[in-house]
Amino acid sequence: MTKISYVDKKHSPKKNELVVEFKVKPAKGISMERAAEEIAKESSIGTWTDLATMKPRIAKKLKPSVFSIKGNTIQIAYPLELFEAGSIPQLLSSIAGNIYGMKYLERLRLENISFSAAFVNSFNGPKFGIKGVRKTLGIKDRPLVGTIVKPKVGLNEKEHAKVAYNAWLGGCDLVKDDENLTSMKFNSFKKRVTETLKMRDKSEEETGEKKAYMPNVTAETNEMLRRAKFVKQQGGRYVMIDILTAGWAALQSLREADLGLIIHAHRAGHAALTRIPDYGISMLSIAKLARLAGVDQLHVGAIVGKMHGSEKEVKGIVKGITEKSSHLKSVFPVCSGGLHPGKVEALLKILGTDIIIQAGGGIHGHKKGTIAGAKAMRQAVEAALQGIPAKDYALMHKELAIALKQWGAK
Amino acid sequence: MTKISYVDKKHSPKKNELVVEFKVKPAKGISMERAAEEIAKESSIGTWTDLATMKPRIAKKLKPSVFSIKGNTIQIAYPLELFEAGSIPQLLSSIAGNIYGMKYLERLRLENISFSAAFVNSFNGPKFGIKGVRKTLGIKDRPLVGTIVKPKVGLNEKEHAKVAYNAWLGGCDLVKDDENLTSMKFNSFKKRVTETLKMRDKSEEETGEKKAYMPNVTAETNEMLRRAKFVKQQGGRYVMIDILTAGWAALQSLREADLGLIIHAHRAGHAALTRIPDYGISMLSIAKLARLAGVDQLHVGAIVGKMHGSEKEVKGIVKGITEKSSHLKSVFPVCSGGLHPGKVEALLKILGTDIIIQAGGGIHGHKKGTIAGAKAMRQAVEAALQGIPAKDYALMHKELAIALKQWGAK
Predict the structure, then answer these.
(1) Do residues A32 and A122 lie in contact, with contact meaning Cβ atoms separated by under 8 Å?
(2) Catalytic annotation present for A405
(3) Which pLDDT tens digit goes with each residue over A161-207?
(4) By residue range, what is the domain housing residue B60?
(5) What's this model's pTM, rounded to 2 decimal places?
């Protein structure tokens, strides 16, 4: 039988290899070397015992190499041939599959993936990206302002469209459905899309600005694609999808359908994988995969909002979805979750202007209602762009003044 | 604005409500009551602030009720109307979505879901189930014996088919691809299926037993469906899918394609969600969802093998996928991961005979090769069924004797 060793600190990653970084806490009595060996084995060609069916040429061609072990961080270089071109599910079944369950380990986190150009080239990536989105909306430099229709669920189709209309009228560029609103008894997908797009057209005429509606198409794959095609037929420019609860295979199907619609990616459920610092899969890795799959916009965290996510982490994610990587376009980072006008200044200071600022409660919770809430948000953005403190800008802008009084200036 | 309270300990769950049990560890300074309130809110109709757009009729109709808080466990009853009929992604975007990221919480685990009959009835569930699988294979009472072709990846199509042939010849009923083998440069899906099904036919003729091949169709949804149809055309009876890395929308698409193929579900990656006892999503919940979606066979853990998973947990999962639930058929539990003939007796003692015993290394690692390995496994099953200790049975069965010597009798 062929004995194979996977730890090779002299190995330097080759051009075509994928480099994966894991954080590892071995089980009691297991060394880091041994744990690294078992991870490399189970995520590629090996199993718990030597095999009569193993062949030397397989080990030679497909064996990954653990080339770095530093503290609790290991790096493994995987030969490209271990992965099916253009398949995210197969990649994850390898490098984020069985290994989490191994008794050799107490904790494991997939921290980062560096794809080789050959692997990246087997994916489409975003069809629009930041530039394409900006062009579609005719907005050159400023951050986009978006909202989620609230309450999350419960409004009927006409009420939903009305809330969207008010948001656009007040100054929102984008209006999206919430992650748990798909096609419900009290609000059916088709009627909602028709009604809301009507209001989009009306608000475009009345404001002279381009407006977009991002209907949530999350469903079983074929139903999802039917819904996306319906959006296209009705003159929509966008769809949104809950990428993790729908799953990678469906996300890839949506991109490959190539309907000419901008794809907005909600990450509902990500924190079940990403939040424990030494377990699961980092949001950075998920974000890079979403970029490969071809989303145009992705929720990355709001830092200053209601959800967990540090400045360092969110900056890292933004870098991961916008930095140069082969032919891939940049993904538009979406900041969402507990934002309101008082937080805009701080957010822009940290992340700059190439972001989408999305607020639900922070707009529809405004004491004077949705229109005033959207106005306050646009005013907060104007203030930040002009370098004027929100409090000062509020002296001449009453909606902003009310918002700051209601929720605070930070 | 409408103020809504979600904690209602006097509420008793109604017939149509879904009851979800969470384990909760609030953030510092947050009470369990407050944490429960925020979870119920964010997973249904609310957000972090009161809304101008909220309407009393929405709260009345759609508000969930936290009806139990005991220690760190809470139970919430959700009105049926919050969920789209027949959609697992939408359900998870609600009850396993944003809530994991909330700053109010330090830890959160979705522990269990009790579906109402009305919700269950919106899903097909398994097409075959345990009875249908047994009928297809002509095996009445005994546990099925399965193997995974090993090494996981690296064999070409003919080598793969040959290993499968040897496994069937030695006594395996089922042969499956590994979770990371899909369509590779060195082993293409179509050629592998054709070659391996040829060997299946040959082994059926030679052994007089029914044999099945479970090719891994995991891919982008449309490609996955094309692969499944190809399997059907070629006379296959089964497909396997990595349900978590492909995702729920694709899994539902596979079942809804209704190709007359038994669906074998691999759970690669589950432990990233399931393993931390107070975080993520329990395997029990995932298993129940997989049953709704319609898998016929599901990996549940091996207890005595190489992977994490206690006896109590695995028994709970088996119960969850086989107990009476509306029209749903029972899912065949698959025990896999580090099994070998020496472990069969202990496994059957714990789980009984309505299981599939799957061994990869424990068959292809046998000193005398795959045929002998499969023989040893069947012998171990015979011994256990006859109530004869494996060691005694080994006196008259040399393949078993070698396996026990090689890996131990326990």
Answers:
(1) no
(2) no
(3) 999 999 999 999 999 999 999 999 999 999 999 999 999 999 999 99
(4) 18-120
(5) 0.97
